């Protein structure tokens, strides 16, 4: 585990070992995402959509088209009823 220290301006320096492992370059944006156990970050990169393959966990069971349609209808109804 690596540690970064926040300076008086609220800036942090990502340790060089971590920057190297994540291939973070100067000027590159890093997005911060809250996590129930703390905060972690993800490096914003550009590339092919296929680079995103495997980032989401596999569902326990696949939804049917009917189940997806039902979920979309419920979400739209919820949005209309509670704008």
Fold topology:
Layout: H1 16-22, E1 30-35, E2 38-43, H2 65-81
End-to-end separation in angstroms reads 43 Å
Radius of gyration: 19 Å
The neighbouring-strand order within the major sheet is: 1-2
Low-confidence blocks of residues: none
Give a verbal description of the structure.
The protein has 83 residues and is an alpha+beta fold. It has one domain. Helices cover 29% and strands 14% of the residues. The protein is built from two helices and two strands, in the order αββα. A two-stranded antiparallel sheet has the order 1-2. The longest helix has 17 residues. The protein is elongated, with a radius of gyration of 19 Å.
Question: What's the short version?
Answer:
The chain contains two helices and two strands; from the N terminus they run H-E-E-H. It is an alpha+beta fold.
List keywords for this structure.
83 residues; two-stranded antiparallel sheet; alpha+beta
């Amino acid at each position: 585990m690596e540690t970064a220290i926040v300076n008086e301006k609220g800036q942090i320096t990502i340790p060089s070992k971590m920057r190297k492992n994540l291939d973070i370059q100067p000027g590159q944006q890093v997005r911060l995402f809250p996590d129930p156990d703390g905060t972690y970050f993800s490096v914003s990169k550009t590339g092919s959509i296929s680079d995103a393959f495997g980032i989401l966990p596999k569902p326990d069971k696949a939804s049917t088209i009917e189940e997806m349609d039902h979920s979309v209808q419920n979400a739209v109804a919820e949005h209309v009823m509670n704008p």
